[in-house]
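To the team - iron/sulfur cluster complex, inputs and output below.
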Amino acid sequence: MIEHRFRQSWANTFLDCPEAARTQMNGTAIDKTNSSMVRGTVVHEAIEKALLARMAGTEFSLEDILSSYEEAWEEYVDEIDFWLEPEAKVQEMGALQTQVWFNEVFPDLNPVGVEKTFEFTLYQDEQRRIKLHGTRDLDEDGMTWDWKTGRAKNAWEVRRNNIQSMIYTLARAHELQDFETPQPFTFCHLDKGKLQNIEVVRTPGDWDSLIPFFINIAELIEARLPTWPLRYDGWRCSDKWCGNFMNCRGKHIGESPTNW
Ligand code: SF4
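Output:
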């Protein structure tokens, strides 16, 4: 029996570029942490603290959440390998995103689970078992939330194709043992300090469609090919976002091409 265990975020990397995902999985890609990634981590941490406090019966003020943000910033800032924007600008934007979330989203939330990890078996036959795992930002009764601090995608595209929401709602379906009832899921985008909520609904058909999606990836892994397809046209294909860049496209065009 071959065991496959996929993290949801790795599936996103696979969709952005299969070869980036392969080299991340086998450890040959060199992970680099940029300032946007750390800003996202810090905003998430501040939000998490406010939600956990509410679950424990304590209400955060705006000052409380902003001071959690500043503490987390100090904790993580040294992890940044390179800056996409000047430090002050990155830090201010994270604080603004935290503030917007606090003022416009937090008041109506009733958390029942915060940063909840999950793992479930998606598929199993005589040959292989496929498990999926990940961490959900927020569970409410009847709604799952995800905070996004990066660039927002088109709402229609998210509603139609987003894989993360399929996986997270299926995880909740396993926990509820209800595989018949469609579930709503909200992406809360805080890009550029402006709120945009995109609500999607995931159905039993969406959940079933994950099975061939991951069987295909499992078969690709089992084929032990030396490389997987290269996706030059994705946003990830740059030295700033792909840890495999200098073993791949960067060999031909250099680390930071001057014509970009
Ligand atoms: S450099 Fe581009 S094509 Fe190569 S692995 Fe990275 S994202 Fe994929």
